[in-house]
Design a protein that fits this description.
This protein is of the alpha+beta class. It is built from twelve helices and nine strands.
């Protein structure tokens, strides 16, 4: 029996933000116990998602009246980070779930929001998404009372482990984009089991084919009488998910540093040929210097990520009609800064921890490589250079980034 299959005795669900973060730490501890073994096995994470459901974390943002946590986005970001410290893949799955669970609020009508939030919260449903914008849009055919989705996406995080999938496409012959939430397990959705990358191996991010998936017009998010009324609030999905990225990157980096310091204290041997021999590796000057440098950089990245989280939370929990393009743009710049900073810091930590753990720490059984592989893989999601340019344009020219599929 694996660590994730062992029963965890959660008799009740937390009621405060700090309680939810402690619950996430408990989940992370369970995941960390066999994270390396599960990464090597690369099996569909059914038990891991069951752990997220049993802990209550999947309904963190759900309405209290339906059994949800009723928490804010700053808590969701901290929880994502905590889980990622135990297992980066599962942290990513949870962070994406939070974004897709909020999708109805981003673009839906009040009636759609209420229906979706009651559905997923009361059933502990888990979300995936088939939206990857680098691929061609899914083609939507308008058949009167129904929309029919067809096409293929090369990435679909969550895929087989999800209960609900977010689809996005364009109505044929128009420029109308339509989001819809559909059951994941149906004949028209085919997951191709082709995710086999060097990192984030348990995210089930492989390709998916959409074959004639039917959606009633009343489920087309944000549409009334087949017309969509856009708001600036609708465009918050991109900075929101980009900050999800930054938070699970931060969690991965925190997990790496935590594991490395533990290994150094317990197993790393001091170097006997330096002329100033120490009894323990933890007394070595260069080891202390390196850990001090990495910890300081990580704290700085965390502070910036938290600052961005506080800023975007104000918008995500505001009245939707009140959010302005200026507010949205300023938050997007801050998120871009946080993302680029934690990528650089996290990759440095994932690399340099080997310098302070020693040659024996490169053994496959130790698994220190998992942190660098995970962060390196997902940090290529979209070029970080463009995030630096967004911040540069704001700093030099006062320009705010225009909403795009990646901004």
């Amino acid at each position: 029996m694996t660590a994730t299959e062992k029963a965890v005795n959660w008799k009740s669900r937390p009621t405060t933000a700090e309680g939810w973060v402690r619950r996430a730490d408990e989940v992370a501890a369970v995941l960390a116990a066999d994270a390396v073994r599960r990464d090597r096995a690369n099996q569909t994470p059914y038990e891991e998602v069951r752990l997220l459901k049993d802990s209550g974390l999947v309904t963190l943002l759900g309405p209290v009246e339906h059994g949800g946590g009723g928490q804010s986005w700053s808590t969701a970001y901290r929880v994502t980070r905590a889980v990622a410290a135990g297992d980066g893949s599962i942290g990513q799955l949870l962070g994406y779930h939070y974004l897709w669970a909020w999708a109805a609020r981003l673009v839906g009508t009040p009636e759609q929001i209420a229906a979706v939030e009651e559905l997923y919260t009361t059933n502990d449903y888990f979300f995936g998404g088939a939206v990857n914008p680098r691929d061609r849009d899914l083609v939507i055919t308008d058949e009167g009372d129904e929309l029919v989705y067809d096409g293929r996406k090369s990435f679909s995080t969550g895929s087989k482990v999800s209960d609900l999938t977010v689809l996005e496409g364009v109505i044929e012959g128009t420029d109308k984009h339509v989001f819809a939430i559909v059951p994941s397990h149906q004949d028209g959705i085919v997951f191709n089991d082709d995710w086999d990358n060097i990192g984030q191996r348990l995210t089930e991010s492989g390709s998916v084919e959409i074959r004639g998936v039917r959606v009633p017009w009343e489920s087309a998010a944000g549409y009334v009488d087949k017309q969509f009324q856009p708001l600036t609030y609708n465009t918050l999905n991109l900075p929101t998910i980009q900050l999800v990225f930054a938070n699970f990157y931060l969690g991965i980096a925190q997990g790496a540093l935590r594991y490395a310091t533990s290994y150094t204290r317990e197993k790393t041997r001091p170097w006997p040929y330096g002329g100033d021999d120490k009894q323990h590796a933890s007394e070595e000057f260069h080891i202390l210097d390196t850990y001090g440098d990495l910890q300081a950089k990580l704290w700085a990245a965390e502070a910036l990520v938290d600052r961005a989280g506080s800023a975007i939370e104000e918008l995500l929990h505001a009245e939707r009609e009140s959010v302005t393009p200026q507010q949205r743009g300023e938050v997007a710049v801050l998120v871009a800064a946080a993302k680029q900073r934690i990528i650089d810091t996290g990759l440095e930590i994932g690399n340099r921890i080997f310098e302070v753990t020693g040659a024996r720490a490169t053994a496959s059984s130790v698994g220190l490589d998992i942190y660098w592989r995970n962060l390196r893989t997902h940090s290529l999601h979209d070029p970080v250079a463009y995030k630096r340019v967004e911040v540069g344009r704001y700093a030099l020219l006062g320009e705010l980034p225009e909403p795009t599929w990646y901004t």
